[in-house]
Predict the structure.
Amino acid sequence: MESSGRMGMDKRKYFLMKTAIFVFMLAAALVALFPFYWMFVTAVKPVDEIWAFPPKLWPSKFIWSNFTTALSRAPFGTYFKNSFIVTLLSTTITVCINLLAGFAFAKYQFKFKEFLFLIVLSTLMIPLQVTMIPVFIIASKLGIRNTLWGVIIPPCAEALGLFMARQFISDIPDDLLEAGRIDGATEFTIFTKIIVPNVKPLISVLVIFTVMWRWNDLQWPLIMLSSDKYYTVQLGLSNLNGAQYVNWNDMMAASLISVLPVIIVFLIFQKEFVQGVASSGIKG
Amino acid sequence: MKDTAQKKIPFWRNIKVVPYLYIMPNMILFFVFMIIPIFMSFYYSTVKWNGMGTPKFIDIQNYVYIFHDKVFLKSIFNTIYYTVATVPFLMILALFFAVLLNSAIPLRGLIRSAIYVPAVVSTVVVGTVFTWIFQDQLGLINYIITSFGGTAIKWANDPKFAMIMLIIATVWQRTGYNMVIYLAGLQGIPTSLMEAATIDGANTWQKFRYVTLPLLKNTHMFVMITCMINAFRSFDLVYTMTQGGPLNATKTIVMYVYEQAFTKNYYGRASAAGIVLFVFMVVLTVIRFKIEKED
């Protein structure tokens, strides 16, 4: 019934549709990327072109030293150092304690197991604002408020990471652990020698997501820190953004430097990212 | 399992003790910085206290106060406004992009990454860049508006437009994340179903409307509820861009709690508002778990 002419039409229509989709999605991608471009252009512009109106879409010359100036003039150097310390230590602690706890919840029987896990899971969605004041008071009592430890330690026990660790470790066959026990391995060696090597994808997902979360976090530094010398990049940027006179050169240079690490991590681990998001979308 | 060896080994290697040791670091932090604070918040919501001296018990007066406080009521309205405005945009755009990217077009992986990239960037940076783009006198957006003959808008300083600015920034930042979830959902649709629909003579729109859309029901629900939860929790963007102003036009519940607590030192009122937020979150979370159970 279908004539060959109809088929030709379909092919042309198909080609046109593909082209239209491509052009449209390319435009969407450019919109998504534009603010990064604008960050960059603003960061390297000469100062007087910042104040030019209409805005210059392309700087007359590139002042690369704006980046080093931003790092030295504003206290951004200190902010970056603090962010780096917080991210490094909190990621290490978070991943270790979540793996251990996830292992226990996945592979051992103990009293209150289901109950404890349910409690952890039910707090997954609670915003920091609900617990903010008590957390602030407890941290003060413990003497970790207004220190980097105050930013690092309290959010380390984190429900989503524990949940993911338990899910993933559950899939490791019990026979593997039993074989280890028969060989005389202690429970801790089973963890280090059998569990850890078998959950490398889990570890990379946990590391990536914790690094991103901690590097990008504003709220914990905001409630814990009062001295400028402990500020993280996000807290520093956020406070400067509210200032009366904003030096957009510095702000955009610092912003750009602060997003570089996460974008590099993202580009390297794209697959893990997409899988992580997709699996959190499917499993919850 | 190994009953003979059990008695000789030290207790920290006992299989009955080991799991408690493993969960201990996690559980200590969890109880000290999450569970205990939740209960303390309930208690603080019933006292008058500024952080100094002794808290004074005033039963439900804090709740009475905040529900008569125009600013708090406005913050509930603003939170709902922000949620209702962002969620449909996020869902429709994300689904639209996902469906288009699910077809074989050139540079597909690159385009997907480009649209996803805003989701990995910190919200503070997003807020900073959008503050600059939406700046009154020198901002790019106002330049575009004026060059098309419009009048410049005082975005962050205009109560009518400040929230719209936040909504645009949110949609820009979060669409890619939801798109990736939708792409995963689309991959779960068996190709045989699509082929069957093609054989039955369905056109592209009909295939989308009667096959893709209904089969993504779980994904729609998941994306919607997570977007709602995120909208209710959204703090960083508001704090960075508007601090709740101008004239409370962007003051959300989380912003109200923060302000009562740390700018005004009304710990009781802040806790009461925090508990109201907690109730909202519990409702959303219960809905979420209900949906997931149905899967």
